[in-house]
Amino acid sequence: MNDATALEFEFYxxxxxxxxxTLKQFCHLRIADIWALTFDPGYNGQDLWFYLNYPIKxxxxxxxxxxxxxYATKHIYTLDDGSGVMIKVVYALPRPTNGQTATEASSMAxxxxxxxxxxxxxxxxxIVRTFRDERNIxxxxxxxxxxxEEEVAFWEKTSRLKAEVLSQPxxxxxxxxxxxxxxxxxxVSPRRHRDSHRRERRKADQEEDVxxxxxxxxxxxxxxxxxxxxxxxxxxxxxxxxxxxxxxPEKPAVLTxxxxxxxxxxxxxxxxxxxxxxxxxxxxxxxEMPxxxxxxxxAGRAPAPKKPVPMxxxxxxxxxxxxxxxxxxxxxxxxxx
Length: 337
What we know:
By secondary structure, this protein is of the alpha+beta class. The chain contains six helices and ten strands; from the N terminus they run H-E-H-E-E-E-E-E-H-E-E-H-H-E-E-H.
C-alpha cells in the first residue's frame, strides 16, 4: 500500500474485517474505481483488495461490450463504462455433458442469461484478479441490462455506495478493537501453548531415546549410556568405554555336576578322607577315621580278577625240574679223600 495513504486512516487487523460494510456483499463500482483499488501482499492469495481502508472482495460492474475473445474453455469480454478505462471479464465455460457442444452448454448455464455479442450491456458479478500486471474480473454471474431503466438503477446504487460508505474512511471504536484482539488472543494462545508443549516433549523424547549420526540416520542408544556414545557394531576391537562396557550384574554360577574338581590343599582341620583308591602303604588306617564320600571323586579302576586259561592241548610241555632229595648223612658216611 501507499505510505502516504496509510497515514490518513488506520488499517485494522483481519479479525476486524467482518465488521466492514463492504466485505460480505457485491460492491457496485465503476471500472475506474477497480483500477484504484490497492493491494496488500500480506493478503496474497485471498483475492482481497482495499478501497481506502475498506476490505473488498466481491465487485459488481456494468458496461458495454466492445470486444470478445473466444477460447476452448473460456470467453473474455472487454467492457467500457465510460469512466475512462476498460477492463476484461473472464467467463469460464461450463463443461459439456451428455454429448453437448460448448455453445449449447454455455447457453444452458445458470450464471449466464443469454449469448453475448458486441454492443450488449452487461451486469457482471465477480472477483478481481491480476494477470500479467493487468487487472481483470473473473465472472461469477453475468446478466444483460436490456433497457435504460435497468442501467439507471445500477448507476444509482453505485452512486449511493460511493456517497454513503466509500467517501469516508472506515472507523471502529477502539474498545471494539481491543475486545476483538483479546478474543483472538484467547483463541490463539491455547493453540500456541499446546504446539510449544508438543515440540518440547518431542525434543526431550528424541534426546533421551535416539541420536542422529553424521548422515542424519536415527539410531538407538544403549541403555545406561549416560554420555550417549553411539555403538553401531562396526567399531574396531579395543578398550571399551566404561559406560558402554557396563553390563548387567553377574549371576551366581550353577553347578551341574560336570565341572572338573579344583585341586585344593587340604586344611589341617579336616580329617583324612579314604576313598579306597589309595596305593597300599605300610601305614595302616585306624578305624577311627571316618570315610567321607562326596560323589565328586574320580572313579578308579579296580583290578580285574584273573580268568582261568583254557587248556587246548597244544601248549608246550615244560620240562619238569629234577627232584633233588636230600639225605642226611652222619659222620661215618663222610668220604675221606
